[in-house]
Design a protein that fits this description.
Layout lengths: L5 H25 L3 H19 L7 H21 L8 H29 L5 H8 L7 H7 L5 H27 L8 H27 L8 H17 L4 H13 L1 H4 L10 H33 L8 H25 L15 H8 L13 H91 L1 H4 L1
Helix pairs in contact: 1-12, 2-12, 3-10, 3-12, 3-14, 4-5, 4-7, 4-13, 8-10, 9-10, 13-15
Length: 467
């Protein structure tokens, strides 16, 4: 157990963070998601740990806590980057519609596949297992789309964020239906949603007005602690807690919109900007750390042998095929023909793992192989990697073509410029020649005229000589 001593754990955690930072650099250059590298690192550590510590360690508790904190940080990070403007309304609504239809459609088809191929899987449990497999991973998408065009990047941020939130709401709605006595139905769910939005708005206004008056510099983690508290209390009250986090992020990122007209007098603009800026940095850093350890620990808990099962491969491939088929139809309807690389950017990740571990015991099916989860996560991430690399090459080729075109244009302009210079020079020479000719003629005429005048004068002065 020497490997798990205090100083060794500090060394190991530090090395993991350094490697994660390095993986991010590799990801930006190659478009291979850093998440995949972290999972592989976790699998390697699993075998190393098994060599030094023969007894199996239970890491599921730590994984769940890291997942919850990571989810909050990722949604908050995304919300802080969303600008709510009139011109953004159509992209937001379109992204929301695509996320919702894609989520429900993928879950329905995946539930049919699981019900058909997994022994003992009833339809109600199939929906519960299918929902996590149908949610886009903002934890993977948001860091990966930074190199795309601005409108495509914005679309993926909106879509993945709303997919996370709606997927979690859908999951807990299905969990509530397991107990008919506590199930409030669709009307109760809608009421719950409205109540969550109201609480979120009230809490957001209160936090902003209070925190701008706190003079202490060390208040950002206090703010994060308040948000975590609101999230946990909301969960205890069976509210859609993630909406509280999303709305708070939107309010502080768009204070001018939420404090219009005379209500702006309640704001101290400089302090609000400072809170926003510091919160954005801390959220980014915290999300990075939590995401790092979450996926490494997930890699350490994976049962590798389940990946080599024929039934796992068959079920996973059917689910993956259905994901891209449904996504193709939805994107063609809402976006049109320009759906690359968006079609293939549909990875599963943190939310999928987190909700899988949140399935209640009464709904768990012994015949479901956890390898399906891993297979879908890895396959969708690899497909996204391929699409991003292909898009990067395409962009590179387009840039090369533009550069070649510019070079050709510059060469043509240089040739034209040289021709113009030659023409101008020849024209100038001709003008000079003409001018010289004129001058010569004029001089000749003047001299000739002077000679004539002299002759006349001589004839006038000395007529007798002539006679």
């Amino acid at each position: 157990m020497e490997i798990l001593s205090s100083y060794n754990l500090i060394i190991e955690a530090s090395i993991i963070v350094i490697l994660s930072f390095w993986f991010n650099g590799i990801s930006k250059k190659t478009n291979i998601p850093s998440v995949l590298m972290l999972i592989v690192l976790g699998i390697i550590l699993q075998f190393v740990l098994r060599y030094f510590v023969p007894e199996k360690l239970d890491l599921s508790g730590g994984l769940e806590i890291l997942g919850i904190v990571g989810l909050i940080m990722i949604v908050l990070e995304a919300a802080l980057e969303l600008e709510l403007k009139r011109e953004k309304l159509v992209p937001i609504l379109k992204s929301t519609a695509i996320a919702l239809i894609g989520l429900v459609g993928s879950a329905w088809v995946a539930a049919l596949i699981l019900h058909q191929f997994v022994p003992g899987m009833n339809m109600q449990a199939a929906w519960l297992y299918a929902t996590p497999l149908s949610i886009l991973s903002s934890a993977i998408i948001i860091p990966s789309v930074s190199s795309l065009e601005e409108n495509k990047k914005e679309f993926h941020i909106y879509e993945s964020t709303f997919s996370d939130i709606m997927g979690i709401m859908m999951f807990y709605f299905l969990v509530g239906r397991l107990n008919p006595a506590e199930d409030a139905g669709v009307a109760g769910f809608a009421g719950n949603l409205v109540l969550t939005v109201v609480i979120a708005l009230v809490a957001s206004y209160a936090i902003i007005l209070i925190f701008q008056r706190i003079k202490s510099q060390a208040k950002q983690f206090l703010l994060i602690a308040v948000l975590l508290l609101l999230y946990a209390i909301g969960k205890k009250m069976h509210l859609s807690s993630l909406i509280i986090i999303l709305i708070f992020g939107l309010v502080i990122a768009n204070v001018k919109l939420f404090f219009p007209g005379k209500t702006a007098i309640f704001l101290e603009n400089e302090k609000i900007k400072q809170i926003y800026h510091e919160l954005h940095i801390i959220t980014l850093e915290t999300a990075f750390i939590v995401r790092t350890f979450f996926f490494v620990i997930f890699g350490m808990t994976i049962v590798i042998s389940s990946l080599f099962s024929l039934s796992v491969a068959l079920i996973s491939l059917l689910i993956i095929a259905s994901i891209y088929a449904i996504r193709f139809v939805v994107l063609r309807v809402f976006i049109g023909k320009d759906i690359l690389p968006q079609l293939f950017i549909a990875p599963r990740g943190l939310i999928t793992v987190l909700l899988f571990y949140a399935i209640p015991k009464e709904a768990q099916i012994a015949g479901f192989e956890s390898g399906i989860l891993l297979f879908v996560i890895i396959a969708t991430s690899l497909v996204m990697t391929w699409a991003m690399i292909k898009d990067k090459r395409k962009m590179g080729t387009m840039l090369d073509e533009i550069e070649e075109e510019m070079e050709a244009r510059n060469e043509a302009e240089d040739v034209l410029r040289e021709r113009e210079n030659v023409l101008d020079a020849s024209t100038d020479n001709e003008i000079l020649e003409v001018s010289d000719t004129k001058e010569a003629l004029k001089t000749s005429e003047m001299e000739h005229g002077r000679e004539d005048t002299t002759t006349e004068e001589d004839q006038t002065k000395f007529p007798e000589q002539e006679s």
